Amino acid sequence: MTGVRLAPRLADGGTLLVLMLLAALIVTSWPARADMAQGSWAVLAPARAILLVVWGLIAGSTAAMPRVADPQGPGVRFADAVTRLAAAGIVTAPFEAVSHTATMPLVPLWWALLAAPLGGVAATGLGYAVTSWLAARKLAWAAALAVPVILAGGIALDLATGIPVFAVWLLPSQPSWIAGAVLSGAALLAATMAVRALRTALARAS
Amino acid sequence: MVVGVSGHPVASAWNPVVATVRDAPGATLHLDLDAGRLQQGEVPIQVRRTFPAAGGLQTLDFDLRLPPWRSLTWRIVHDDRVLASGSYAARERDDRPLQALLGVGALPADGPSHDRDARTVRVTPGDLPQRAAAWDGVERLWILGTTAAPDPATILTAVAAGVDVVLAPNLSAAYAPIERLVQQGPLYLGAGVLRRADAESAAGPRDRDLQRALLAYVAERSDAPPWDHPRRSTVAWMAVGYAALVWGVLMVGGAAGSLAAVTLAVAGLLLAPSFAPSDPTPLSEVRMITVGGADLGLARRVVSVWTQPPLEFAMDGAWAASGRAVVHVDGGVRVPLAAGDRVRLEGAPEIQDVPARAALRSRRDLEVHDERFTAATGIALPAGARLLRDRDAWWWLPPREDGADLTAVAEVGT
């Protein structure tokens, strides 16, 4: 019997990279002079959103890739990815809060804090779902193309409607209930899928 | 209601606006401009001025910088009744400066050649503005001598404001006080010159393009003041320290590590408000450039304003903001600013006392910007001219300077 690891290792390279990039960004864009009035948040918020969403897409897609010698299975790998993204969203929140406080943008702080992590978890689910669907048809190799194409289509739709959901760099600065509902729903779905995958894996293990 | 000198508004210049009502106490002048362009959309500029709450003849007389407009409408309202209204269509917009002829008759044959880029208009002594800013759109004033002599103070104000004032030959005795000033040749005063028709004028600061370039150069040399935030080095230490600490507890792993990371994140969120600036009011910085010499100069102020939160910035005095929606009210302007916005306001030109050129040149603590100006703008200053900086104050000194005892003639306006 193979054991199931419930708690993933959170101190991975992705977390370290995101933390150090955001630390560097907040320092370099700090509003030290009058002409950098919105410097910090205007730079850091899109960067955090892009980092989490891109990481989420890659992590979700990678988790769904078929592997020969992995006893955990794609479901557990997906649950790991969702947990990592959620944890990264939590530990990077202070950077967002500090830059938001320092630059006083019009966007409410709660949106700034939530938008990027929700986007990251939702992107993990999207990457996983697309790659799983392709893998079931022996087309997993096409995921590297399909996921960016779907993202590009979503961005085109965003730009046409003016409501950013996939255009992540606009997400923090343009709060909308539609984007909030879509991202929350997708993130909730991804979290539910992750929990179900873990339960299934536990049941199999026992 | 008269806009511009003698009713000839000049776009991209300060213009006098004179509105008169009779027995309409507390009436309001509404002047609305659209200064937008095709790509920019509408840029509304509103003027709201209230007449004195008194009967009889009441006048509003102020200066307004007219941007190139797409529409300009005005109306005078009293007790919800429109007393008068009018408009200037876009096709009436003209940014060519005026060549004003004071008097009747033809121009002297031996005078300066007519500037093809100028509009020639006839004016009467009553049309001549008293304030320097109102002369901004006038390039040359011909005094032909066929009308009553204007107030010498008005003429000297025009000269100091940068107008090339040319006296026709054979003026009557009423012009003697002004003619005395040019007995020794052209009088360079402030930013302009007073001369006889047959006298040549040296290159001077009257060049409008040069004045605009100087103002832009001075405004660009602003040193953005710092916000009242915690220092960047403090932020650097705290950001790197936080990242390292979070990474460290995540390395521990398990529930304890995760709980510690969440605790650190919550602590970071609670500490965030301490990174706000202690004073969120907008930052502003004033620069002033004074062109001309001989005791008087034409001073132009430029104020740069930066804000973090969105607000409506208000300032006393006559100011203009290019390409921005502005509301001109009694005694000042209001400019709506978005979050993180920056606006540059240009003040109406004023005549000011300036130190003598010799005194300025003898000062060792002044920065000389002649070559730097030419390098930055590609505009060469006339030989012998100087561009000097003393912190926020700048002086553009013309190539030559003639002193004159003006007190015997008139007291120059503002």
What do you see in this structure?
The complex is a heterodimer of chains A (206) and B (414). Chain A is built from seven helices and no strands. Chain A is mainly α and 206 residues long. By secondary structure, chain B is an alpha+beta fold. Chain B is 19% helix and 34% strand. Chain B is built from seven helices and 24 strands. In chain B, the strands form four sheets. In chain B, strands 14, 15, 17, 20, 21, 22, 23 and 24 form an eight-stranded mixed beta sheet that branches. The longest helix of chain B has 21 residues. The two termini of chain B are 23 Å apart. Chains A and B meet through helix 1, helix 3 and helix 4 of A and helix 4 and helix 5 of B.
Quick structural summary:
The complex is a heterodimer of chains A (206) and B (414). Chain A contains 7 helices and no strands.
Which structural category fits the helices and strands of chain B?
Answer: alpha+beta
- Mean of the pLDDT scores of chain A? 88
Structural class of chain A: mainly alpha
Biggest interface: A-B, 38 and 48 residues
> Poorly predicted ranges of chain A (pLDDT <50, ≥5 residues)?
none
Largest sheet, strands/sense/barrel of chain A = none
Helix content of chain B: 10-25%
Spell out the blueprint of helices and strands.
The complex is a heterodimer of chains A (206) and B (414).
Chain A lengths: L12 H16 L10 H26 L9 H18 L1 H11 L5 H28 L6 H19 L15 H29 L1
Chain B lengths: L1 E2 L9 E10 L5 E7 L9 E7 L6 E10 L4 E8 L2 E9 L8 E5 L16 E5 L14 E6 L8 H9 L3 E4 L8 H5 L6 E3 L2 E5 L11 H13 L11 H21 L1 H18 L11 E9 L4 E11 L4 E6 L2 E2 L5 E4 L2 E6 L4 E6 L2 E4 L3 H5 L5 E2 L1 H8 L8 E5 L2 E5 L17
Parallel strand pairs in B: 4-18, 8-9, 8-10, 10-11, 11-13, 14-24
Antiparallel strand pairs in B: 1-2, 2-5, 3-4, 3-6, 6-7, 12-13, 14-15, 15-20, 15-21, 16-19, 17-20, 18-19, 22-23, 23-24
Helix pairs in contact in B: 4-5
